[in-house]
């Protein structure tokens, strides 16, 4: 891991006294490789290493008896700070229902996450309703209904309606008339480069006036995370991110990439297939995971 | 990559960026770059204008070894098991495969081996309807091996040509889920000698270096005969298969390029390399 690699790098200079520019150069190369191995985006790594370089040539590393450890500490600190705040809360609307719109690429975990959020809200005493706005994927509506039944959360669906805009309008009406606190809208997976489907999301945003537009991203996403997040953010002004499937062994560098380019907070992480598998995001833990 | 008079460090860094951004991963990128570097040192490669084409040839050579054709005529019924982590496109890909084989005049049987995830069986049934083939299923929650058992009997008695088994998505790091998959494979082989004839791992092209861990562990636990790389209609390049082909020697059979029935193509190394550098 990075700690060991840096120890080796700096061990080579024992007896040479002062750290040289070359030593730091080699050490920063190890930091760069560690982040690239964690799937952090190439350009994001470049900027990050530049940040670290400033501190690396400063007193804390140069005068340290354990420069390797000191550098790892700096990298970890910088990463944690970049990852954002601990436990950022879900926004709520001034008038109920608070609408939360879930968006993202195909298969990232939106439908499952929508149900997980409903589960969480119900445990906190709220009255959420799930909205089946994915009219494209085979059995998507059924999937959300089955999940809703598992946690006793109401699901709004309209099998006759092929336009998600109408479904959302109807769901909003129903939630207001029933005095529900939250509307969790599950949307179809889509490519950020699919203009028509991105337009659909823009229309849903106008109709719903959501308090949250959450981009659901698979933790194993590679370099493409930046392109995807930038596009969704540009088109919709997302309010936050949910990183899923963190119960696997993906390093999750996409988290840093997305945070760096959108500046939007990661609010939750998905940690399993069951509906209890949703936890608040902890930046320090994510930083440790990315560093391996 | 143009406008330079000799191959220097800056030019190699530019190449490194192209490869990393295409998700080749650190290992494969360092290997390719160092191979280029040694050629430059030996003066075998001196012209910067040649660099890109040389790089493309080097990667093409690796990928060419990784082309696989699934030959369903090798056995009847020919059994294909489709596995992979959650959400990569297994169920959708099975619909596409069924359509493919039906077009070739074959009788196809689908097996609803995902008895866990909400509406997984209904999802496969819709693909079965679209492709025009039957689906063997039980109620959700039953042991998936029981569905496999029934499917193998049905395959024989109905004299089908191809059987495609859908399985629940699962993370490669979950031992109990890998054990479940091992049992499914064992039951298939016990009931139909030689089955499964293909075990295909479905990888999402947006996945980074975790794809290597996925391929490694699924291969160690279950034994893979090939890969299917999906969602190449997005902006991700899927370059990670370079390392998987080179290091693990697992070939790629198909690529997924969309969400519709016909959005499946055989893996072609030349097209793939062109897209990598596009
Ligand atoms: N292990 C694990 N699996 C997850 C997690 N979140 C979702 N999944 C699984 O990932 C797969 C895809 O989840 P879905 O909820 O269908 O994803 P989606 O984004 O709605 O997919 P589309 O609607 O097709 O775009 C399913 O098998 C889920 O059970 C998680 O945190 N951990
Ligand atoms: N754009 C695009 N989407 C795809 C492709 N293949 C599958 N999908 C989509 O990816 C999502 C997940 O597909 P599924 O077939 O449910 O994936 P799965 O691996 O069976 O998922 P689990 O069973 O939950 O593990 C769906 O929205 C599919 O339409 C592809 O080649 N391109
Ligand atoms: Mg969904
Ligand atoms: Mg499936």
Q: Any overview of this molecule?
A:
The complex is a heterodimer of chains A (292) and B (278). Chain A has helices at residues 2-11, 21-37, 42-56, 59-62, 67-83, 110-123, 140-151, 164-177, 195-208, 225-236, 254-262, 283-291; strands at 98-103, 128-132, 155-156, 182-186, 212-218, 240-244, 266-270, 278-280. Chain A has 292 residues and is α/β, with parallel strands linked by helices. Chain A has an 8-stranded mixed β-sheet, with helices on both faces. In chain A, helix 11 links the parallel strand 6 and strand 7. Chain B has 278 residues and is an alpha/beta fold. In chain B, helix 9 (241-248) links the parallel strand 6 (226-230) and strand 7. Chain B starts with 8 loop residues before the first helix and ends with a helix. The model of chain B has no long low-confidence stretch (mean pLDDT 96). Classes of the chains: A alpha/beta (292), B alpha/beta (278). At the A-B interface, helix 2, helix 7 and helix 10 of A face helix 1, helix 5 and helix 8 of B. Bound molecules: guanosine-5'-triphosphate (GTP) (2 copies) and magnesium ion (2 copies). The site of one magnesium ion has 7 residues of chain A, from helix 6.
